[in-house]
Design a protein that fits this description.
single chain; 2 helices; five-stranded antiparallel β-sheet; 35% strand; 5 strands; alpha+beta
């Protein structure tokens, strides 16, 4: 009985970690995009007039929080310079994000990134002394 319970627990635990290759690739591409490794073209479109309102291209990451759309793009890899564009979406504005180039990613192994330099932040000292 005990062996049956242990075997069942191992089988269920093994199945819980199973995902499709497409799901794993999707997660890995999202991780790569958050680390400025995916070239993208992001286009904002007015849904009433079909007018292109903005275009952003580069190694970009974006987030949508309600009606606020923030795009962060890496502009210089050597200097690690980034630019942020903040847009406020309305009812008739939509955006399309297209990956503009291929990115190699693993279909079966999830990608984990560990950045030890983020444990201790970079401090700037500002004093009010004369």
């Amino acid at each position: 009985m005990r062996k049956t319970i242990i075997g069942l627990a191992l089988a269920l635990g093994g199945l819980a970690g199973c995902t499709s290759a497409a799901d794993t690739a999707n997660e890995n591409l999202s991780t790569a995009a958050e680390n400025f490794e995916v070239p993208r073209r992001i286009v904002g479109i007015n849904g009433i007039t079909d007018e292109v309102l903005f275009t952003v291209e580069g190694y970009c990451s974006y987030e949508v929080d309600g009606r606020v759309f923030e795009v962060i793009c890496l502009t210089d890899r050597e200097k690690e310079e980034v630019e942020r564009t903040t847009l406020h979406l309305s009812d008739n504005v939509t955006f399309v994000s297209t990956q503009t180039g291929p990115v190699s990613t693993d279909l079966f192994q999830p990608r984990v990134i560990f950045r030890p330099e983020t444990i201790v932040p970079d401090f700037d000292l500002s004093t009010s002394g004369g």
